[in-house]
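Q: Given only this backbone (513 positions), what sequence would you predict?
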């Protein structure tokens, strides 16, 4: 019992301590809550003031913007009012001027009417004096007025003819100068903007080999290999003493190319016998056909020409293996196409149509069949067959004057074809034919009376004719140059154009003794 009492007392004391501690903590929590509430109230008051200030600033900003817009509108209104006032003043001033002008016109008309009456009176008096003077003149001259008028008209006609002839000559000289200058500018500009490599081909291809031992294998036993190769390709194969070379001779360049490629494959493979030759030639022929089509497509793409018929594309590619006067036909056609496009652009025409006509103008030189038609007409028929436009067909057919030119594309193609063929280095001729053409030029000009000497210069592009000053006057020299040019056109064949220059020299010789 004695032991239990202290324990109870201890427990009571502990409970009292716990209660006291809880009371203290509760008091502290109330104090802390009160502090937090006060801080929250102060923070809310601060935020309220901040928001009020921001709202006030925004209100002031809106008021300032509104005042600014109102001022701008007021300025515009004032400006419009000022313009209206100025316009009103101008209208009032113009109305005053118009009224003054009307008054002046009325006064002027009245004055003119009075003057017109005076003029009519003077005119009547003048008519009387003129009749009197005419009677006097007829009496003095012994001619009537009609006779004098006829003589005067005849005199004026002669003077007018002389003046008109002089005026016409001046106009013609000026037109020639301007036309020549403009034509030269367009042609030179077209040539400068189009530069094409020149490929020279002939009827012989040289096939190079590594050693002369291969010649015997190509000939074969008793010549069977070479005979099989010639029969398969249609090309004459010349094996002679020329070291490390075999000559392939034939007029058709496509066949020569097939023979060259077939020989190359046969020599590289080493198996050369008739069956193998026929197999390789057939394979190479197919490859060349594919190359022809690919060349045609690539050419059309390079020139920006679309919608060509596949057969026309094949014929364009075939041009690669054809030459004309030593000039590669495909390169010539590409050059002509570019020249046509440039010249058409300079003249305000459609450059795409001109380029298309220029590319196809010599398509008649590479047909699969060889009918008895000029290549221009054949090309025109092929173009018509493959649905080309009428102006392009006409340009193809008329570039050598076989048909009448019906569109502006035709003379452009004709001129650009001549430019491409006549430029230096484009074509080559046999020396004998070249010399004969120069001699024919000189002899043709020498056949005219009054011609003393003739000189063909610039590779036959110009013919200079020297005439006697005592036999031909200046007026006849121009006529002579035109006659010689016409005769050359009618009787001779030549690429490009020939310039005829007639020179008349006057010499005065005296001796001092």
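A: Predicted residues:
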């Amino acid at each position: 019992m004695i032991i239990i009492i202290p324990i109870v007392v201890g427990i009571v004391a502990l409970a009292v301590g716990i209660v006291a501690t809880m009371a203290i903590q509760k008091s502290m929590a109330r104090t802390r809550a009160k502090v937090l509430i006060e801080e929250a109230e102060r923070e809310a008051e601060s935020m309220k003031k901040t928001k009020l200030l921001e709202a006030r600033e925004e209100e002031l900003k809106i008021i300032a913007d509104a005042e600014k817009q109102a001022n701008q509108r007021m300025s515009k209104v004032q400006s419009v009012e000022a313009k209206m006032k100025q316009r009103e003043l101008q209208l009032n001033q113009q109305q005053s001027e118009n009224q003054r002008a009307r008054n002046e016109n009325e006064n002027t008309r009245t004055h003119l009417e009075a003057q017109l009456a005076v003029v009519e009176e003077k005119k009547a008096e003048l008519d009387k004096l003129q009749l009197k003077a005419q009677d006097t003149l007829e009496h003095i001259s012994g001619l009537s007025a009609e006779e004098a008028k006829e003589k005067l008209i005849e005199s004026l006609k002669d003077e007018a003819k002389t003046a008109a002839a002089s005026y016409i000559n001046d106009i013609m000289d000026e037109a020639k100068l301007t036309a020549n200058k403009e034509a030269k500018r367009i042609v030179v500009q077209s040539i400068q903007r189009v530069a094409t490599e020149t490929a020279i081909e002939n009827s012989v291809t040289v096939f190079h080999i590594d050693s002369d031992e291969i010649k015997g294998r190509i000939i074969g036993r008793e010549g069977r290999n070479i005979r099989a190769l010639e029969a398969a390709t249609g090309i004459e194969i010349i094996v002679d003493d020329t070291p490390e070379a075999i000559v392939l001779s034939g007029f058709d360049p496509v066949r020569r190319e097939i023979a060259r490629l077939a020989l190359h494959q046969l020599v590289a493979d080493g198996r050369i016998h008739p069956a193998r030759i026929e197999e390789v030639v057939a394979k190479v022929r197919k490859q060349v056909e594919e190359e022809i089509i690919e060349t045609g497509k690539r050419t059309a793409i390079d020139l920006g020409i679309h919608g060509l018929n596949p057969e026309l594309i094949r014929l364009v590619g075939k041009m690669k293996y054809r030459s004309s006067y030593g000039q590669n036909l495909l390169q010539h056609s590409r050059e002509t196409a570019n020249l046509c496009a440039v010249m058409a652009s300079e003249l305000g025409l459609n450059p795409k149509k001109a380029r298309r006509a220029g590319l196809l103008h010599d398509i008649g030189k590479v047909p699969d069949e060889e009918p008895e038609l000029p290549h221009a007409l054949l090309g025109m028929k092929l173009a018509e067959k493959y649905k080309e436009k009428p102006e392009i067909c006409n340009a193809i057919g008329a570039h050598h004057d076989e048909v009448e030119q019906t569109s502006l594309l035709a003379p452009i193609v004709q001129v650009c074809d001549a430019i491409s063929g006549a430029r230096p280095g484009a074509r080559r001729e046999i020396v004998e034919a070249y010399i004969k053409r120069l001699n024919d030029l000189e002899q043709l000009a020498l056949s005219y009376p009054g011609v003393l000497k003739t000189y063909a210069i610039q590779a036959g592009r110009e013919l200079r004719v020297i005439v006697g000053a005592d036999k031909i006057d200046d007026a006849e020299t121009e006529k002579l140059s035109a006659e010689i040019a016409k005769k050359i056109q009618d009787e001779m064949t030549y690429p490009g154009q020939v310039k005829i220059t007639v020179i008349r020299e006057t010499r005065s010789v005296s001796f001092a003794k």
